[in-house]
Amino acid sequence: MLCETTEEVRRKYCIMGLRENEMRRLGLIPFLTMFLVSFGIAGQASAQAFDLFYQGPKVCQECHEEEYKVWERTQHATGFRTIHRRKDVSAKDIIEAEGGETSIRQNETCVLCHFTPSQTSIDDTPKIAAGPSCETCHGASSIWMAIHDDYGGKDVTKEQETPEHKRSRILSSSDSGMIWPSQLFDIAENCMFCHGMTNEEYDARTLKNMIEAGHPVRGEFELVIYSQGTVRHRFYDPADPKKNLEMTPAELARMFVTGHAVAFVKASAAQDRIPTKKYVEAQKRRIAAATTTLNAIKGKVPLAADLLANPRAGIARKLVASIKDMDLSAEVKDLLPDPKNYK
Ligand code: HEC
Ligand code: HEC
Ligand code: HEC
Ligand code: HEC
Q: Which ligand 1 atom is nearest residue 236's CA?
């Protein structure tokens, strides 16, 4: 698809940088082009519609300075310089087990989860210049970048934007690969691709070899613990745009339930995929934790019982949508992690 028209080496990087969820979104591109043309807002975007690539975190910094400062201090950013020198886990042993390119930044499998291969144009050779970064979580941006902050023309301000335009802006940027913070299900699913090692696109035997050579699979990955510590960036207060807001109890509870609903689906599907003890145990552990949470809310959220009986993504997505305005903090209060453990 997107990268097929380009030369061999670029195709390799193009595809290797994009994960399953992004690929899935690519199928929507022809629709997107039609949509944009019919709204007349993107002659230029339709010309570029087949050029999806990562641009790297520096491109976002210009307008999202506070978010950038937060990201810079996370392990996603700092691991870039240290990962190959870790003493506790040997990157060298893992690479050997993988069997491909011997440099971690050249190795396709490692790049999928550890780096952001960025380009300035589709003709540019991708550079590995950062670890997982903005677009890892918000989607490869070459197409949505020009759409997501366009209120309806150069001179139109945020306040002047019409509600219809706002709706179409959010829809078309999300159809071209952007994951908005409000798309909580997609955000949580995206973390699991890497942290859960649940992506069907990854070769099971290769992952098995890597895990047996010491690659971590952390069964304790839980969305609140992992998203509300160093990773948290919530500069939502217009009165104080430099204030990184903490979640309210209701928001925390929704994040917790969303993480577990997604983990339940992913881990149930993946548990037998990679036949090695550490992996199977990690997935079982996720299923057990998610089962407890889903049982705790099923009195108030009937879809939780459906999901327990049938761990399917469609049901989990509906569940997440159904709790959008709910406060489940009372139901999960004994299950929520201690903030001291936030990563
Ligand atoms: C030229 C300035 C500019 C650049 C560059 C830019 N953004 Fe934005 N971004 C904005 C503006 C303005 C908004 C607010 C849009 C709105 O009001 O809905 C925004 C909104 C967002 C949001 C949604 C925020 C919310 O409150 O829901 C995300 C996520 C985001 N940008 C991510 C990125 C990422 C990732 C990059 C880099 C790949 C990037 N942006 C680059 C200007 C920019
Ligand atoms: C493209 C793959 C990828 C995605 C998607 C991803 N991560 Fe990561 N994450 C990593 C890798 C790789 C590391 C380890 C980095 C290192 O040590 O160099 C990591 C490390 C972390 C750490 C530090 C862990 C520790 O032990 O302190 C946190 C916290 C984290 N990720 C949270 C998240 C959250 C939350 C999400 C989803 C919103 C997410 N990550 C999505 C790949 C990813
Ligand atoms: C499916 C995604 C995925 C792939 C593919 C992958 N990693 Fe990782 N790797 C991760 C995540 C996620 C972490 C962090 C785990 C955590 O802290 O929860 C990690 C952690 C590590 C660590 C330990 C550092 C730490 O933060 O604990 C090393 C070393 C490592 N990976 C090496 C490699 C090498 C070498 C390759 C390629 C052969 C590779 N990884 C491929 C996802 C991946
Ligand atoms: C590990 C995944 C991850 C990474 C990396 C990441 N984000 Fe986010 N981002 C999120 C999540 C999750 C939210 C939703 C936060 C919420 O609403 O609680 C979010 C929210 C946002 C928002 C809206 C909130 C705010 O702060 O205004 C913007 C804008 C944004 N991200 C931009 C960026 C930029 C720019 C980068 C890179 C410098 C980045 N993000 C890196 C996961 C990530």
A: 26
Q: Which atom of ligand 2 is nearest to the CA of 19?
A: 1
Does the beta carbon of 76 lie inside 6 Å of ligand 4? yes
Average pLDDT by stretches of 10, the chain with 343 residues? 36 46 47 39 42 93 98 96 82 93 90 93 90 96 95 95 96 92 94 88 90 92 97 97 97 98 95 91 96 98 98 97 97 97 96
CA distance 58 to 105: 19
Q: How remote is the CA of residue 231 from the centroid of ligand 4, in Å?
A: 8
Q: Is the CB of 181 under 6 A from ligand 1?
A: yes
Q: Nearest CA to 66 among 239, 242, 199?
A: 242
Tell me which residue has tokens 């910094």.
61
Query: Full-prediction pTM beyond 0.90?
Result: yes
Phi, psi (rounded to 5 degrees) for 228:
-105, 5
Domain boundaries, the chain: 6-50, 181-343
Does ligand 2 come within 6 angstroms of the Cβ of 226? yes
